[in-house]
Amino acid sequence: MSKLKTKLCGIEFPNPIWTAAGPAASDAAMLKRAADGGAGGLVTKTISVKPAQVVIPNITSPFSGSLLNAELWSEMDYLEFIDTELPAIKKLGLPVIVSLGYSPEELAVLGREIDRCRLADAVEFSIHYIGKDTDNLRRTAESLKNNISVPVFAKFSPSINDLAEAVQALEPIVDGFVAINSLGPALDFDINTMQPKLGSSDGRGWLSGRAILPVGLHFVASIVEITSKPVIGVGGIRQVEDVVKYLAAGASAVQLCSLAILKGQQVYGQLANDLELWLNDNNYRDLNSLIGAFQRKQKRSTFYLKQGVQLYPDWIAHRCNFCKICEKACIHQAIGFVNDKFIHDEKKCLSCGLCVSLCPKNALIMKETGI
Known about the structure:
Elements: E1 6-8, E2 11-13, E3 17-19, H1 28-36, E4 42-43, E5 59-60, E6 66-69, H2 78-90, E7 96-100, H3 104-117, E8 122-126, H4 134-145, E9 152-156, H5 163-170, E10 176-179, E11 183-187, E12 189-190, E13 195-196, E14 204-209, H6 213-224, E15 231-234, H7 240-249, E16 253-256, H8 258-263, H9 267-281, H10 287-290, H11 293-296, E17 310-315, H12 325-329, E18 335-338, E19 341-344, H13 354-358, E20 364-369
């Protein structure tokens, strides 16, 4: 997999598919399964000075491909993790990024202890449970950076108010960014018992998995427009196309959690293999030629409904399998099929593009048409 080798902040990774801080990275045994499964980097579950008091049950799947999680951070004592788990993790032979949280005071303590043991290649700190005003973000980052000698990555929560302001505040301090953490709070409950699915006091948790992919892509694409420092994409990955999107949006690597929980720890290597095949099939010479491709691509013109040039769905007959998903999904009834021919009514069509996105065979494309 020579095409997938990458180097970030002086650290060499065999591939850009890493674990993410979460339940699938809780200890050395779990991370060994990830390493055996082909992960290119090992990010640990977040540790803090005070172990988490974990409610049960704490993970549920509200719909296919996504999770609600109320597990918080690691329930392990941080000194036990550093003295017992971290040496075993380091022996796995992959770069180790230790996730830390949360307050400036806690990060100062954790930074010193991680620096003492010399077993972490980098650290990331989560802003999930802290105040997100720029002064506090800056103070939090400095508290960690001043107490550790390895690269520091700031992991953003999707609830941050002003992304550009936060990046600009942290950019002089940190070595890179990670985006995004899980989204929430979020709620699900059983309509038969009217009880929440999670054991937290209010039934709330944090949403991860396929549902948050577009949010993660937005964050990555936005951050790379502000900083030249590396950005790691997290959230919603379930297939190689999602990895490609993160990299093309500007991410230097990606992290996985929900997919590994739902499908098993072999997903890291599977995605790495699929990514190398995708690069070959699509004529990308290496990873760097894909990173930022979306940013480099000239954006198309903006079109407006019923003004000037219009975009309408155009049918590619030889690709169509006549599943008629497009017809069923058109709430304007602008699409139909007669004698196995695609019929489109421009007077009814509002050019929303949903039919194109739903076609499983790519038999529809949006095409410019004069008005």
